Amino acid sequence: MRNTGNLLLVLAMLAFGFSASAQSQGGVAEDDVKKMLENVDHQVEQMTRDLDLEDWQVFYVDSILTANYLSLQAGFADLSAKKVSNRDIYQDLQYSKLDEIYYALEKVFDESQWAKYLKRGAAKDKKSREKYFAKKNK
Question: What letter would DSSP give residue 85?
Fold first, then answer.
């Protein structure tokens, strides 16, 4: 995937997949976690190339993505275990985690990197999340 702004969307879709898997299996499959971590590694490598990240930035990006997506997956598994079927609750959790990632990455990237990141779709994704929450809070 060339567009690093789509990183959040791809990982969120994976997390939703893990939620469905957790619902059907009553827990989180080890293979699902492994796939998610492999995808995080791939996205970190791509962001490293596309944004010319320094070593310390790579460490933080990897840590941010890994921690937030494991947390998201655990949240989905918890909702699933509680037999929550309202899709909006899952989406609220997903969008909250995506916002956490967005703000954390903003602190790691320099101005030039952040501008590139936003141009590659992150700004559009953020606007979409803001629109979702504004509509929901009406």
Answer: -
For the chain, where are the alpha helices, taking DSSP H only? 7-25, 30-51, 55-81, 87-108, 111-117, 123-136
How many whole angstroms separate alpha carbon 63 and alpha carbon 131? Answer: 28
Indicate the pTM of the whole model: 0.77
Cβ 26 vs Cβ 116: under 8 Å: no
Of the candidates 60, 51, 73, 67, the one whose C-alpha atom is nearest the C-alpha of residue 105 is 60
d(CA 55, CA 102): 20
d(CA 116, CA 18) in angstroms, rounded, equals: 30
Q: What is the pLDDT of residues 54-63, one digit of tens each?
A: 999 999 999 9
For residue 94, CA distances in Å to 16, 45, 59, 84, 109 come to 8, 23, 23, 14, 23
Output the DSSP codes for 24-62.
Answer: HHTS--HHHHHHHHHHHHHHHHHHHHHHT--HHHHHHHH
